[in-house]
Design brief:
The complex is a heterodimer.
Chain A: E1 4-7, E2 10-14, E3 19-25, E4 30-38, E5 45-51, E6 56-59, E7 62-67, E8 72-77, E9 86-94, E10 100-102, E11 106-111
Parallel strand pairs in A: 2-11
Antiparallel strand pairs in A: 1-3, 3-8, 4-5, 4-9, 6-7, 7-8, 9-10, 9-11
Chain B: E1 4-7, E2 10-13, E3 19-25, E4 31-37, E5 43-49, E6 56-57, E7 64-68, E8 74-78, E9 87-94, E10 101-102, E11 106-110
Parallel strand pairs in B: 2-11
Antiparallel strand pairs in B: 1-3, 3-8, 4-5, 4-9, 5-6, 7-8, 9-10, 9-11
The chains are: A mainly beta, B mainly beta.
Chain lengths: 112, 111
Amino acid sequence: GENVEQHPSTLSVQEGDSAVIKCTYSDSASNYFPWYKQELGKGPQLIIDIRSNVGEKKDQRIAVTLNKTAKHFSLHITETQPEDSAVYFCAARSKDGNKLVFGAGTILRVKS
Amino acid sequence: NAGVTQTPKFQVLKTGQSMTLQCAQDMNHNSMYWYRQDPGMGLRLIYYSASEGTTDKGEVPNGYNVSRLNKREFSLRLESAAPSQTSVYFCASSDRQYGYTFGSGTRLTVV
């Protein structure tokens, strides 16, 4: 089955700097890759996603890139702000599957 | 549009007691899921329902049962609660085209 690895497990950046979180997946048939943000005491919330027919997608300060050959995808947050501090999860869904497989999560701390 | 609603938000149980966690979605999604999240850990799938009338085990199903009551509702039951089941439980739903929509969670403590 699908396996998703996520790095780093924790990331501290200075306000205004960029943050990058990387994930690798094992199933080359995976075709959908969402990213979730979980704030303290809340459920995960979808922030951006990308499909396998697209290499990059941007939404204001966040972007996701996908390298199908290498089977990895990354979340990029530019001009980080204290409200970006949260746990971020990547996930992958196989073409023939009905489940998302999640990475272990990254705790992002933005220091002001 | 409420999305995914979970009840209760908090619960304290004594070891051996039973309870049912309720989940309802109003997005007409076919698929629903139950996850648990322990401190410092990621999301672990307990059970899921790909469509009304079907349920399947996830990676940590022991000690739990589920019921897909109808397309909107998916409940999780603990028959005999154990301290190891102290966790935050999240319900989610999906239409398979996009990602999951999660509820706000049920924080369960078993003493």
